Amino acid sequence: MALIAIAAFVLGLCTMAGLSMLRRQRRRIPRSQAADSYDGLQRVIAHLFESSPNGVGLWDRDLRFLRVNKALADINGLPPEAHVGKRLGEVVPRLAGTLEPMFRQVLRSGEPLVNIEISGETPASPGDQHFWRASYYPVRGEDGSIVGIGAVVVDMTESRQAEHALRQSEERYRAFIEQTAEAVWRAELEEPVPVTLPVDEQVRRFLASGYLAECNDAMARMYGFESASEITGTRLNQLLDPADPKNLDYLAAFVRSGYRLLDAESHERARDGSDRYFLNNLIGIVEKGMMSRAWGTQRDITERNWADQALRQSREQLRVALQAARMATWRWDLQSDARVWDAEFPLPWNAPEGPTEGHPRAFLDQVHPDDRIRVSEAVRAAVEGLGEYREEYRVVSPDGSVQWLTDQGEVIRDDNGRPLYMAGACVDVTHHRQVEEQLRQVQRMDAVGRLAGGMAHETNNQMAVVLGFADFVLGRSDLAERVREDVEQIRKAAERTAGITSQLLAFSRRQFANPKVLELTEVVTEFEPVLRRAMSNGCELQLRAAPGLGLVKADPGQVEQILLNLALNACDAMPQGGTLTIETANVTLTREYTKLKPGVRVQPGPYVLIAVGDTGHGMSRETLSRVFEPFFTTKSVGQGTGLGLATVYGLVKQADGYVWVYSEPGIGTTFKIYFPVIPSEEPVAPEAEAPPTLGSGELVLLVEDEPDVMRMAVRALREAGYTVLEASGGREALDILVEAGARPRLVVTDVVMPGMTGRELANRIAEIRPGLPVIFMSGYTDEDVIRRGLMERGRRFIQKPFSPNDLARQVHQALTGDAGARVSSAP
């Protein structure tokens, strides 16, 4: 601009310089030629003067306008001819006070004033501020004296206004970025990154060579600094962890998007090392195929992320809690009568797929027909404000299974009390119902078990007498054959009676078990002939025993009893004949499988399966639900006791196993029994019954309040070679020991006696005769007497009814300290 101004001024001054030169040369050239040259030069100078874009003017020493070009005339707002002859103050009165001192200084000093900035108003636009840059030069005559002033004026108004606008814009920008809560930044790359490189390489170089060149204080505070100066210059890889996959994905998305990315999340580190999360907008500057810098803004969303995470954790905890509680939440639109479940939480039962919306009765259609009216009435009553909605009812899944729900809801009303919808939650209480039923089953079994225990005590006392004296009779060599046959029938009847008592004790888990390590295929194979003889005509047995089964620990006699009961039950279900199949196999009960058995805690792991299936008439669902109940039977009166399957259930549970039954009417029934596999051990071979051992006159004190049992036991011991002292109760036994001074080698005492129990007697004996062995006997099982507090665990015990040989063997083992003596150890 200065060069243009000077050139314009020089051109403007050429008029006077040219005139002076022509005047000097007039004397040297012909008059006509000089005139032509003078006129031509004057026209050129006049053209340049008038066409200059800058204002050019000439003044005499009195500051009168001599000449102005159109540009200067436009600045002043007057035509050029209106300036000539007028003083400066007459043309631009508002500027005269500023210009006249400078003009007079030039006239006085003869030195130019160059690039002087002035501002003010003009006649053309009063009230508007204008800006100019002017240069003032002295104009000299032929003799070198100053004859006037020339000026070149450049109008700077537009540029100044643009500069002012730019300054205002910059000030507003600075004010904005300093006052905004969002971070504003600029990153520079020490080494620009070629945009043709693979995305991953661009990201790596961006992080490696980038640094923070500029940012506002808001950004600094996000990282824990006080001002932008503290963080400016930080390397990008110090702010963004290059090892964080989320950051790499974020920058890769920036590159793939063409270096324009909105609302992208980054994971960064604050000054103290804490995690910070930002939402970013980025713009990359690409020049000549190289990304050299990036601009961006970011918003701190750390607290929002924490809140979102806390919300997710809370909802996840709620989901887990609802799932664990088998609970679901719902909303019932009373206008459409449709029930909508919260999709985030699974339904607690196998409901039909798809939403219930669009099918107004979809939910009530799932309610069990017997409960549907009650549920509908409860909803109506709640809507009408007649009571709260809280119901327990059944729902039927598409597969036909039935679940119990406890449902509770509240009616949401508008300001006028009009019902809008219901909201609530329901809980699957099927498991609780099953547990309650199992508890009732256990209570029934316990009650019957207590009854069985009492019956066993009395019955076993009497059966001990019958079986004992039957053995005495059968032991005579002079017994007539017909009498022997009669006594054998008596003994068989007594054994059957004892067997019924044994079944009662088995299903109530009060029967004594003698578990051994078994390979069940061997047990089943060895027992096969007994099963075939026991089955009725027309029933065929198929045995599919797998080799190499895992070892289990169970009472072999109880396993045989399970097989016999199931076989007999199956034959009864096939009156016209059929096939009974017994199969063994190694199986594994997985957690997924155990979930299919609601209400039963099944320990996942390896098991040995015994499956007993028939082709009989099968069972209905109602019968299946009661199949293991004691005394429940579908047979005619006199056809069965209802204890067979109850016995099976009790024996399986006593072996820590599981039993389930599957049946379809008209197709048949299969019982699946699972025994847990134990660590590998060698199966113990069954012990052969030892022959009776005779005593050598050892003195034994026998304490029994039942006279008939006393007679049988005394005779059994005496015939076995022992000397026996008799006592009908605890007091009499103590009198014999203390007052009579008898010194027996062993005491055999009943547990339940009037006046003094067997345990109380044993305690008194331990005081007066320490170390004297005691054998307890009872019609109750050892577990029963322990549970009743009548005997300590670990004491020697023999259960009634027992044979004379059994009693003699137990006495011999107690006297000799033989480890084979039966010691109570039931858990």
Strand ordering within the main sheet: 2-1-5-4-3
**Into how many domains do the coordinates divide?**
5
Share of residues in helices:
40-55%
Low-confidence stretches: 1-27, 353-360, 636-641, 820-827
Instruction: Assign the CATH superfamily of the largest domain.
Output: Histidine kinase-like ATPase, C-terminal domain
Q: What's the mean pLDDT score?
A: 78
Major sheet attributes = 5 strands, antiparallel
**How many helix segments?**
26
Q: What structural category characterises the helix and strand content? A: alpha+beta
Approximately what portion of the residues adopt beta-strand conformation? 25-35%
- Report the C-alpha radius of gyration, rounded: 58 Å
CATH topology of the largest domain: Heat Shock Protein 90
Instruction: Give me the count of strands.
Output: 27
The best one-word shape is rod-shaped
Distance between the termini: 112 Å
Give the name of the CATH architecture of the largest domain.
Answer: 2-Layer Sandwich
Q: Which CATH first-tier class of the largest domain would you pick?
A: Alpha Beta
Give a verbal description of the structure.
The chain has 827 residues and is α+β, with helices and mostly antiparallel strands. The strands form six sheets. Strands 2-1-5-4-3 form a five-stranded antiparallel sheet, sandwiched between helices. It has a five-stranded antiparallel sheet with strand order 7-6-10-9-8. Strands 12-11-15-14-13 form a five-stranded antiparallel sheet, with helices on both faces. α22 (707-719) links the parallel β23 and β24. It is rod-shaped, with a radius of gyration of 58 Å.
